[in-house]
Amino acid sequence: MRQAKVLFKGEEAGLLTQHDDGSFTFQYHTSWVENAKKPGISLTLPKMEEAYHSAFLFPFFYNMLPEGFNKEVVCKINRIDRDDYFGLLMTTAKTDTIGAITVIKIEE
Length: 108
What we know:
Largest sheet: 5 strands, antiparallel
Helix content: 25-40%
Strand content: 25-35%
């Protein structure tokens, strides 16, 4: 299992988890959901108490990944398997993102 903090404008909004079977869960922190001034991180992931579950990386996060030549370079330099979307997200989305979301791996 691997986990990452999902930050919105530098504030921790929730937790993204990749389970051992390869599936994913995203869950907002209760304090984020209860605060009416805090927005959902995406239109496809509106705020709610229950966790979101998916057999594959949520499209919102997948769309944050580099593509084409940039993906090849990032994977080669960081020794990441090109199909390890979670690893690629942890490498690139901690600093190099467009928009308000950053994703930071939680070290074991």
